[in-house]
UniProtKB/TrEMBL annotation:
<dbReference type="GO" id="GO:0008442">
    <property type="term" value="F:3-hydroxyisobutyrate dehydrogenase activity"/>
</dbReference>
<dbReference type="Pfam" id="PF14833">
    <property type="entry name" value="NAD_binding_11"/>
</dbReference>
<dbReference type="InterPro" id="IPR029154">
    <property type="entry name" value="HIBADH-like_NADP-bd"/>
</dbReference>
<dbReference type="InterPro" id="IPR008927">
    <property type="entry name" value="6-PGluconate_DH-like_C_sf"/>
</dbReference>
<dbReference type="GO" id="GO:0051287">
    <property type="term" value="F:NAD binding"/>
</dbReference>
<protein>
    <submittedName>
        <fullName>3-hydroxyisobutyrate dehydrogenase</fullName>
        <ecNumber>1.1.1.31</ecNumber>
    </submittedName>
</protein>
<feature type="domain" description="3-hydroxyisobutyrate dehydrogenase-like NAD-binding">
    <location>
        <begin position="22"/>
        <end position="142"/>
    </location>
</feature>
<keyword id="KW-0560">Oxidoreductase</keyword>
<dbReference type="InterPro" id="IPR013328">
    <property type="entry name" value="6PGD_dom2"/>
</dbReference>
């Protein structure tokens, strides 16, 4: 690994050795599970603020400095509220990654119900023609409530 570090430093902001062969892949699966969950929560939070006729920029200002803050919030809140999804990490890629994560969880005897649910929502995005949209496009495809 030591010989590879100088090369990896050319493209990686952080290099962490997490274990033997396959450990990095499993770590990537864990990362994608976290991102999917965060984007699900952000989507619901933004829709709640919009349905309540709140100024979403003020809501962002209020909550982004606290425990809810994340890279996804900082970098996707504004584009999600504007309906801009022609950038970033494609839904197709996320579904591939979540499929691997769900398979690995099953192999390890674990359940991953939140990941499975968000993956179902991403499947809707794909079937609605959003396969190449950013993963934050999830906000457009969550199920509507009883009054919507």
């Amino acid at each position: 690994m030591a010989r590879a570090v100088p090369l990896m430093e050319c493209y990686a902001a952080r290099i962490v050795h997490v274990g033997g062969a396959g450990a990095g892949q499993t770590t990537k699966m864990a990362n994608q599970m976290c991102i999917a969950g965060v984007l699900g929560g952000l989507s619901e939070a933004i829709r709640l603020a919009q349905a309540a006729d709140l100024d979403t920029e003020r809501v962002f200002e209020a909550i982004s400095g606290g425990a809810a803050q994340s890279w996804q919030m900082d970098n996707r809140w504004s584009t999600m509220t504007k309906g801009e999804f022609d950038h970033g990490f494609a839904i197709d890629w996320m579904r591939k990654d979540l499929g691997h994560a769900l398979d690995e969880a099953k192999r390890l005897g674990l359940s991953a119900p939140v990941t499975a649910l968000v993956d179902q929502f991403y499947a809707r995005v794909q079937s609605d023609g959003g396969a190449r949209q950013d993963t934050s496009a999830l906000i457009r495809h969550l199920p509507e409530g009883e009054n919507r």
